[in-house]
Amino acid sequence: MSFGLFTAVAVIPGLITAGIVSTYYTQNPISGRFSFHPFDSLLERQITRKVLKTWGSKLILRHTQTSHPQVESIWASLTSSLNLPLPGKLIILNTSEHIFYLFPTGDMFISTGFISNHSINTVKTLLAHELAHILLKHPQENIPYSKITCIFTAWMCRNNHHFTQELKNYLITAKYTKIQEEEANAWIRKYFPEISQEIVCSKAMSLS
C-alpha cells in the first residue's frame, strides 16, 4: 500500500467523523462558547416524555398532588414572559421529600416540603435558574458517553425504549459545571434582572 493511499485510508474516516460530530455543536447565546448537543429539541422532548411515563408516573403515584397558588403564579409568570413553547405541567406533590425537577418538556415536579423550606422569592429564583439550564441545554453537555456514542444513542432513542432509559439520569440527576452555573446566572440577569443575584449565587448554585 502506497503512503498516499495509507494516509487517505487513515485520515478520511477521521475527517468524516469530525464533520458529523461538528454539526452537533451549538454556540451558547449567553457566553458564546460552543457546546455539544446530540439531541434536537423534538427528540429531547420525545426522550423526556418516555422517561416521564415511567419515572414521573411512579413519583406521582407515590404522592398526592396538591396546589400552591403562589408557586403556580410564579411559574406562569416565568414561562409566559419568555413566550416559551413548553406544553408541560407544574406538578406539586404533597410530601415532605425534597423534590425539585424541571424537564425539557416544561414538566416541573416540586414538593410542598421543598416549598416550605424556602422563601417564595428563593423558589422563584430556583425555578428561573433551572429553567436557564434547560433552555441552554446544559444537561445534554454532561452525558458521560463519547460523542459518537451519544449520536448513536440519540438515533436509537427514536425507536428503542432501552436506550431512552439509559439516558434518564442525564435528565433526573444532572450535575452542572461552574461555567454552566455562571451561564445560568447570566441568563437570569439578562431576562429577569429584578431577581436578587445574591440569592442566585448562594441558593441556586447549591441546588445543582
Automatic annotation (TrEMBL):
Listed Gene3D superfamilies: Metalloproteases ('zincins'), catalytic domain
Gene Ontology cellular component annotations, sorted alphabetically: membrane
Segments forming domain Peptidase M48: 68-157
Keyword list, A-Z: Hydrolase, Metal-binding, Metalloprotease, Protease, Zinc
GO biological process, one term: proteolysis involved in protein catabolic process
InterPro entries: Mito/Outer_Membr_Metalloprot, Peptidase_M48
Family (UniProt): Belongs to the peptidase M48 family.
Protein name per the record: Peptidase M48 domain-containing protein
